[in-house]
Amino acid sequence: xxxxxxxxxxxxxxxxxxxxxxxxxxxxxxxxxxxxxxxxxxxxxxxxxxxxxxxxxxxxxxxxxxxxxxxxxxxxxxxxxxxxxxxxxxxxxxxxxxxxxxxxxxxxxxxxxxxxxxxxxxxxxxxxxxxxxxxxxxxxxxxxxxxxxxxxxxxxxxxxxxxxxxxxxxxxxxxxxxxxxxxxxxxxxxxxxxxxxxxxxxxxxxxxxxxxxxxxxxxxxxxxxxxxxxxxxxxxxxxxxxxxxxxxxxxxxxxxxxxxxxxxxxxxxxxxxxxxxxxxxxx
Length: 283
Description:
By secondary structure, the chain is of the alpha+beta class. The chain contains ten helices and 13 strands.
């Protein structure tokens, strides 16, 4: 059976998170992140849906997700996936964009996929430096040059993030979910809030946000869970604080969206003092 390896490090100097998945077959359901994702396919063929677009990814293709970009992906050829990505929090992105452009705007990258991009090579080198926890400034130099090219060729720095026009009702639902994600939210509550029928609410929300209301709620919970785990909170306590019904539900859904269990993700930050990557292998 294929051996899976999932390696994650957090670079405390650049404030970047680096993932490497080797030999995985996992399907990721429709979800979004509250940070930027810049990644590439090392080996494997992958079906990706981002927003209203569908793509077939192959080795050498670069992907870029803005915060709040809904996306899902799965294997299409029965073979395993090798994948690397760098996650950039908005405040970190803002800092580096200011370094490069002198502006404090958050960029919106306009292409989710760069097919057979020349940027895969420097992205690979940068990612390996992060995994190796290289101490000198070469990695920061490379990141700045890479980001400068992405900003120049593939972004609209003046567009807001997310760049979508939402109706008042959908804005109300999003705000309600973000304020009450720890509670047992019902569809009846959302219909009472907006005056929309259940079906119309579901259809309108999914059309405008690219993700269903319940998946939006689950993703908000997962994003909050990540922040708590990064602070060293135990997975059992995180499950309660993030609004999950039980720890089993939390663990299963966390791995489904993030690719790691909560314990594996927590270990990244517990091992920072030891300066060792968190690596999880399973046969």
